[in-house]
User: Fold this.
Amino acid sequence: MLDGIWSTAEEQGRRMDAFEHDMCDYSDRIVSLEETVAWLSSENQQLKEKNEDLKSRSCRCNLRIVGIPEKMEHGDPVGFMTGFFTEVLGTTLVPTPLKLDRAHRIGAPPMPDGVNLKPQVFIVRFHNFQDKESVLQRQSRDQLIFSRK
Assistant:
């Protein structure tokens, strides 16, 4: 009977030693994981900031144009917007047509049943940032009017 108690106590001792060894191993792994998580969090924050900077830089040559009736561009939004800026700004400010990289409409198109009566907004990407700035400066001084029928 005493032999059974001793063998049970020895077995419990071995189990406790294995448990303590495992706990020490888990503790070391947790410390390592916490360091990794801290590094990844820092790296993630840097990448978020870099992504935000890149998004801001990619949009800085863009300009939103509101209120141009639908389908006036006749399938050529870049050509239409080039002519639009030449007409609105005049040939004195824009002696040669502005170079645009892209032009497209965004938002929900107007429904045929008249539910959405507002025309879609144009997004225009200028090739040169200075061209966009000159348009904005002119717009802030004068009211720009487009009168094409």
In short: The first strand starts at residue 62 and ends at 65.
